[in-house]
């Protein structure tokens, strides 16, 4: 009966008691500040656009056959069974066992394709020592990677590139697609706005493809391949240039040539952050080759797709899509982190990534839906005297949302015009990867090693932060850009407009480009 009572407690708690993967800020992460330069461009014409997304590429396997799918941290089967005849809860004791390990592990595939040259530099040993002292950090990073790593590994393999490149997001963003640096770099691969645009990553009010896992991976690998051609196939120089810019590496090479010195990465005088960046990647490679010898245990990520692309045929409300896909809104947003509104971009691309186990049924369902079933939108006929601001207040939305959903309407709508307005978009979506205090990475100590950006030579470079860990920082200063509003800034950092006004002593909602706003990255900070 004691066993039965204990099991009854587990049964009553059910799925609501399942653990969610912790994604707290890591205050002891050794930040590596950086500056970046733009991807090399051909002599004439714009840079080549990233290849189109493949419909069936994915990232890491999910367990469990019944929706909603298990998140990466949910490693135990949920107990769900009818009560026995004597009203005692029936529990199959096998259900209490951890789920079996996948037949094929993704880390085995990575190890078999490592190709960078071995090195014995002391800087690699220093990085290894740090990881060995912080095993929980390494565990969290690779738990976080489970949704994305299979896709990245598959793309690297398809291009015939060294598999170590699939681990660059560990150094750049700690595999958090919401990582945001002081230099305004964003995503797993840390592109700044200018360089993201140069690489064909769409950035507008609805989405930021620097955070889109599929699009940004294609852009990053395109850039790395161009750099590698520039440096005659030397991958260590390529990776260094990815961090600090090809111009800085070329100048260091030319200086060594003039002095009659070697021009390998280890012989060059490069910025301090770059001299840490490359050894850090090599240290991670060493860890994966033999984690146990360094006191580490890696999560058993399956060598199988985690997500699959489903074409939606038009704009889609993400919460509505989550209901049709039978997954949580947080899981859907974690697989589609490029969207920062309640719906996908009305101009496309019209696609969503969903867990593989629900993809087939979701695709069938989507094919039967009409536009009204995909998006919660109302039609509003403009009355005399109404403005976009007054209509926005009426529907508890933002003027920017009305403008984005009615691009052909004039700034001052005419009486009788019919506007599309969102119906109760609700609070900003929060990803399953994000918890309170882990939303904006600027100055928050989130483990993003690169200050991010691939900024064009001559453009303003990402500011350098002090080397070493940022401990306990809770606030940042955001510089207002053209087109920003209090609402859009609040959405970006998952705070409220009222908070922004209170923190900055603002009496009105007006902002001016260049204005600095104080933003707390933790509620109540």
Please provide a brief summary of the model.
With 525 residues, the chain is mainly alpha-helical. It has helices spanning 2-13, 106-111, 122-133, 135-144, 149-158, 168-173, 193-198, 213-230, 235-244, 246-258, 272-289, 318-325, 329-335, 356-367, 371-374, 388-394, 399-405, 486-493, 497-504; strands spanning 30-31, 307-311, 351-355, 377-381, 418-422, 468-469, 475-479, 516-520.
Description:
By secondary structure, the protein is mainly alpha-helical. Among the domains are: 377-424, LysM domain (Membrane-bound Lytic Murein Transglycosylase D, Chain A, Roll); 475-520, LysM domain (Membrane-bound Lytic Murein Transglycosylase D, Chain A). 35% of the residues lie in helices and 6% in strands. It has helices at residues 2-13, 106-111, 122-133, 135-144, 149-158, 168-173, 193-198, 213-230, 235-244, 246-258, 272-289, 318-325, 329-335, 356-367, 371-374, 388-394, 399-405, 486-493, 497-504, and strands at residues 30-31, 307-311, 351-355, 377-381, 418-422, 468-469, 475-479, 516-520. The strands form 4 sheets. A two-stranded antiparallel ribbon has the order 1-6. It has a two-stranded antiparallel sheet with strand order 2-3. Strands 4-5 form a two-stranded antiparallel ribbon. The longest helix has 18 residues, at 213-230. The two termini are 48 Å apart. Residues 1-39, 41-98 and 432-474 have low confidence and may be disordered.
